[in-house]
Structure formats: C-alpha cells, structure tokens
Write a structure and sequence with these properties.
- The chain has one domain.
- The protein contains five helices and two strands, in the order H-H-E-E-H-H-H.
- A two-stranded antiparallel sheet has the order 1-2.
- The longest helix is centred in the N-terminal third of the chain and has 37 residues.
- It is elongated and about 75 Å long.
C-alpha cells in the first residue's frame, strides 16, 4: 500500500510540519516568560539591602532563540552567594557555595510555576495536532 493511501497520513505530515515550525517561536516566547517570571520571583525574594539593590538591576533579553537574564549590579554576586572571605566583602552574608540566598532559591522554590510555563509553550506549539481542543 503506497504511503499516500494510508488514511490520515497527509494530515499527519501537515500537522507535524506545522508543529515543527511552531516549536522554536513558542519556546522562545516561553523562555522569555520564564525569565521574566524568575526575575519577578527573585525580586520578591530579595531579603536584604544589597539584595534589593541588585534585584532592581535585572534585565531580560532575547537573541531570537531564547532568553537571557542579566544583572549589572556590582553587589549581585555578594548578595546572592555571600562573602566575608576578604575585608571588602564583610557586608555580605557568609559564603554559602552555589546555593544562593535569593535569586536561585526563587527558581528552585517555584519549580512548578516555571515548568508550567514551559509546558504551556509546548502545548501552544502542538495546538494544531490537538483534535480535542
């Protein structure tokens, strides 16, 4: 039996081509939403003078493929990871490794929210294939 005669095959190919075209744009949009959500959560989680100062310096940008979070604050790393190893870092909390104090915990503590954004991006890309929606 030729492939063209398989019932639903042309529609399947059309829909998978549409999904393949939609995925990059939908996931780029989802990555921007994830980044903006993470920044908002981190800003709400900032719990010290220096963390609050650093939290105001976030930027979210996109290169067309995904999103990038940047921070131009000179106190970001000290407020997030701590210091106290040198006299010039005594104003920060003790160094706690890669755990972070407010930025990375905001991401870890809101895993469900962030993953729901990713899931929604994939659902949007697959919308053409959803015959129930």
């Amino acid at each position: 039996m030729p492939v063209e005669e398989i019932e639903g095959y042309p529609e399947f190919i059309r829909d998978t081509n549409q999904i393949e075209k939609a995925i990059p744009e939908q996931m780029r949009n989802a990555s921007i939403e994830v980044a903006n959500t993470w920044v908002s959560l981190a800003q709400a989680n900032a719990n010290s003078e220096y963390a609050n100062q650093a939290a105001q310096e976030f930027g979210v940008s996109s290169d067309g493929e995904g999103a990038t979070i940047s921070n131009s604050s000179p106190v970001f790393f000290g407020s997030e990871f701590g210091g106290r190893a040198r006299p010039e870092t005594m104003q920060f909390p003790p160094y706690n490794g890669r755990q972070g104090y407010w930025f990375y915990p905001a991401r870890r503590n809101n895993e469900d929210t962030i993953m729901a954004i990713w899931d929604k991006g994939m659902e949007n890309a697959m919308n053409e294939w959803d015959r129930h929606g």
